[in-house]
Amino acid sequence: MNVIGNIAAATILLFSSLAVAQRNPTFTTGNLKLEDTTFQVGQYTEGVNASCDQSVSDCDSAFTPLVAPLEVTCPAGAGETCTFAVTVDAAGRSSGLTEGVFRYVGDAQTTIPDPVGPGNTGFYMWSLNNLAGTFSASHTFVALVKNTKNSQKHLVEIDLGCFVSGGQGSCSVQALGLFEAGPFGSPVTVTIQVFRERKGEHGDID
User: Fold this and answer.
1) Within its chain, how far is the Cα of 104 from the centroid?
2) Which domains are assigned to the chain?
3) How confident is the model at residue 118 (pLDDT cuts 50, 70, 90)?
4) Which helix (H) or strand (E) holds 6?
5) How wide is the angle at C-alpha 18 spanned by C-alphas 15 and 20, nearest 5°?
C-alpha cells in the first residue's frame, strides 16, 4: 500500500503511536462529507500483544489497545450525528488455536452495527486455521455518534485480542512493530475518518 508506506517512512523517528490530523479535505462520498482524518501508526519496535489461557481466565478480557485511544470530535451541534469510518490494518504473529480479533470501543453516544445487536462495541474476528505464524488483517468499522453538546468529542479505541479456537487451550497474538512487518504485511495503522451529512442543494454544511 503506497500511501501507508510513504506515511510510515515519514514517521521513522517515532517511538510510540502517532496521530496526524488532516484539515479541510475535499473528498466526498454519497450524501456524506468528509470533515477530518486522523492517521495513527503503531509502535516503532515490537508491537502490542494479547493472550489468554482458557483454563485460567475469561478470554473476554484478553484485549489491549493497538494504538493510543483518541477522543475524536464530531463537528456538529447538539442532537446531530457524525459517521466515523475507522480502518485498521495490522500484521502480526500468533500461536496455534488462535482466532484473532479487532475490537472497536466507543462511548455511550456511539452505535456500532454488530451481529449480536447494535451497541458501543464492535468486533471483527478472523480465523488463523489453528496455525502458528505471521498474519495480516484489515477491517473498517463504521460507527454512528450522536452529540449531546456542540462539537462533542467521542472515544475511539481499537483493541487487539484473541479467542481460543474450539474453546479450550490458549491463544496469543502480537502485532508487528513498524520495521518488523516487512513482507508479512502492513505495520499497525489506524485511520479515523469523520463524516457529516451533506446539507443544502449543493451539499454545503453550515
Assistant:
1) 6
2) 2-16+30-197 (2.60.120.660)
3) low
4) helix 2-10
5) 150
Helix intervals (H) in 11-162: none
DSSP E strands in 24-152: the ranges are 28-29, 32-41, 49-53, 63-65, 70-73, 81-94, 98-106, 110-111, 121-127, 133-146
126 within 8 A of 76, measured Cβ to Cβ: no
pLDDT band of residue 20 (cuts 50, 70, 90) is: very low
CA gyration radius for the chain?
Answer: 18
| 77-91 tens-digit pLDDT | 999 999 999 999 988
pLDDT for the residue 11: 31
Between 3 and 174, whose confidence is greater? 174
Buried b (16+ CB within 10 A) or exposed e, 60-81: eebbebbbeebebbbebeeeee
Comparing 190 with 188, the larger pLDDT belongs to 190
Q: State the cell numbers at 191.
A: 485511520
How many Å is the maximal CA-CA distance in the chain? 60
